[in-house]
Amino acid sequence: MKKNELFLGAIIGGAVTAVAALLLAPKSGDKLREDLGNQADDFKDKVQAISDKTLESLKKQTNDLSNRVKKTTQDIEEEKDELDNLSDDIIIEGNDVQKMVTEDAVEVEETTHLFENN
Q1: pTM for the full predicted model
Q2: Residue 23 is assigned to a structural domain of this protein
C-alpha cells in the first residue's frame, strides 16, 4: 500500500470516528451542528492538503519525465548524426576502394595484354 493511500485512509477513518463521537456525545442540536461543521472544515482542509501535495508531486514527476524524454531524444539525434557521418565516410571509402580496384584491374589487363602480344 502506498504512503498516500495509507495517509488518506487514516484521515477518512479519523473523520468517521470524529463524526461518530460527535453524534453519540450528548450535546444540543446547535452545538452538535457547530462541531460537525468544524469537523467537516477540518476534513476538507486535510483533503485539500493531500490533493495539493499529490498535484505538486505529479507536476514534479511529469516535469522530470519530460526532461528525461527531451534528453533521450537529444542523445538519439546526436547518435543518428554520428551514424550518418560514419555511413557517409564508409560510402566514400567504398567508392575509393572500388575506383582503386578498377584501376588495378585495368592495369592488370593491360599488363596481361602486353605479355600476350610479346
Answers
A1: 0.50
A2: yes
| Cell digits of residue 7 | 495517509
**Dihedral through CA 67, CA 73, CA 76, CA 80, nearest 10?**
-150
Q: Which residue range(s) make up the domain with 57? A: 3-87
The three cell numbers of residue 31 are 452545538
Integer Cα distance of 99 and 64 in angstroms: 52
pLDDT in tens, 64-87: 999 999 999 999 999 999 999 999
CB 15 within 8 A of CB 39: yes
State the distance between the two ends of the chain, measured CA to CA, in whole angstroms: 95
Which H or E element spans position 61? helix 29-117
- Domain assignment present for residue 46? The answer is yes
